C-alpha cells in the first residue's frame, strides 16, 4: 500500500455509504494501520502525507479505526454501519461506552454519526448529574520496613495530598510516587485543559480539525497543513500551538519563548488569554520560568 494507490483507498473509505461493505472498510483501515508502523518519525510521516495528498487528521482517524480491535471481531462486524464517520467515532469511544451502546441496541447497520454523537452527549450529561462532587478512592500507604515508629501525621498528610489531586471534574491524577505530587497533578491537569481547548477549537474550525499529532508538528509544517484557513482561524491554532510548546517544549528556551508569545497575544485575543490562564496557568505579564 504505497504510492498513488494510497489516496485512492482513503477516498474509498471516506466515501463509503450505508449498504457498502463494512468488511472492506475495516480491512483497508487495517492496511493503513500496518503501514503506519513504518512511518514512526513525525516529520517523515508529515512529508509522506503531503506527497500523497492525505490530510493528517484523516490519516489519524483511518489508522485509529484499523487499530480498534473490538470493532474487527466477527460477531460485531455484522452490526456495524458502513459509514466511515460513524465507524471512526466508534473507534474513539471507550470500551465501556461501546459495551453500553451494544447493550442498549444502539449499534446497528443504520447507526448514524449524529445519533451516536447525541447518545454520547446525553450519556455524559447523565453521568455528570449523578456523579458525586468528589469520589474518594482507596489508597495504599507504604511504610519503610526499617522505620522505628509509624508516623501517623506523615501518613495523614500523604493521603490528603493524594486525595487533593482528584479534580472535581472527575479527572484522575495518577501519582508516580510521593515526590512533588502537586507538580505531577498540575502537569496532568494542564494537559487535560489543553485537550479541552483543542476540542473547543475544532468545533469552531469544522470541518477542519487539529489532531494531537498535528499539533505536535513543527510550526512551519503545521502552518502548511492549515494553509487554507482564514487568518482568524490560524491565529487560534497558532495560540494553541504556543500553549502546547509552553508545556512540552524540548528546551527551557522554547517553553519560555512560547509562553512569552502567548502572553503578548493574550492582550487582545480572548482565546489566547484563556489558554494563558487555564492551560499555562500564569497571569498576564508573568512569563518567567
Task: Give a description of the structure.
This protein is mainly α. Helix content is 63%, strand content 0%. The protein has helices at residues 5-14, 22-36, 42-52, 56-67, 74-77, 84-92, 95-103, 113-130, 152-164, 181-205, 212-215, 219-225, 231-248, 252-266, 270-280. It is globular and about 55 Å long.
Helix share bin: 55-70%
Shape annotation: globular
Distance between the termini: 47 Å
Number of strand elements: 0
As a percent range, the share of strand residues is under 5%
H-E order? HHHHHHHHHHHHHHH
* C-alpha-based Rg, rounded: 23 Å
The number of helices is 15
Q: Calculate the mean pLDDT score and round it.
A: 76
Throw out a few tags for this protein.
mainly alpha; 289 residues; globular; 0% strand
Show the helix and strand layout.
Blueprint: H1 5-14, H2 22-36, H3 42-52, H4 56-67, H5 74-77, H6 84-92, H7 95-103, H8 113-130, H9 152-164, H10 181-205, H11 212-215, H12 219-225, H13 231-248, H14 252-266, H15 270-280
Task: Write a short abstract of this structure.
The protein is an all-alpha fold and 289 residues long. The protein is built from 15 helices and no strands.
Amino acid at each position: 500500500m504505497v504510492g498513488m494507490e494510497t489516496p485512492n483507498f482513503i477516498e474509498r473509505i471516506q466515501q463509503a455509504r450505508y449498504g457498502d461493505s463494512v468488511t472492506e472498510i475495516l480491512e483497508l483501515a487495517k492496511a493503513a494501520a500496518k503501514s503506519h508502523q513504518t512511518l514512526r518519525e513525525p516529520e517523515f510521516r508529515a512529508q509522506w502525507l503531503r506527497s500523497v495528498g492525505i490530510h493528517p487528521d484523516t490519516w489519524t482517524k483511518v489508522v485509529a479505526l484499523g487499530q480498534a480491535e473490538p470493532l474487527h471481531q466477527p460477531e460485531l462486524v455484522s452490526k456495524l454501519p458502513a459509514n466511515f464517520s460513524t465507524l471512526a467515532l466508534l473507534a474513539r469511544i471507550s470500551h465501556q461506552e461501546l459495551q453500553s451502546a451494544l447493550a442498549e441496541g444502539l449499534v446497528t447497520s443504520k447507526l448514524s454519526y449524529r445519533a451516536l454523537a447525541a447518545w454520547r452527549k446525553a450519556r455524559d450529561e447523565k453521568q455528570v448529574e449523578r456523579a458525586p462532587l468528589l469520589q474518594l478512592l482507596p489508597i495504599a500507604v507504604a511504610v519503610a520496613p526499617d522505620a522505628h515508629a509509624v508516623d501517623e501525621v506523615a501518613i495523614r498528610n500523604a493521603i490528603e495530598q493524594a486525595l487533593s489531586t482528584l479534580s472535581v471534574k472527575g479527572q484522575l491524577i495518577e501519582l508516580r510516587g510521593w515526590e512533588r505530587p502537586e507538580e505531577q497533578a498540575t502537569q496532568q491537569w494542564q494537559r487535560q485543559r489543553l485537550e479541552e481547548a483543542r476540542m473547543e477549537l475544532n468545533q469552531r474550525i469544522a470541518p477542519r480539525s487539529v489532531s494531537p499529532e498535528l499539533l505536535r508538528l513543527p510550526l512551519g509544517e503545521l502552518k502548511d497543513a492549515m494553509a487554507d484557513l482564514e487568518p482568524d482561524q490560524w491565529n487560534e491554532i497558532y495560540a494553541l500551538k504556543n500553549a502546547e510548546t509552553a508545556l512540552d517544549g524540548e528546551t527551557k528556551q522554547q517553553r519560555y519563548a512560547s509562553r512569552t508569545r502567548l502572553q503578548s497575544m493574550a492582550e487582545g485575543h480572548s482565546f489566547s488569554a484563556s489558554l494563558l490562564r487555564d492551560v499555562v496557568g500564569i497571569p498576564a505579564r508573568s512569563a518567567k520560568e
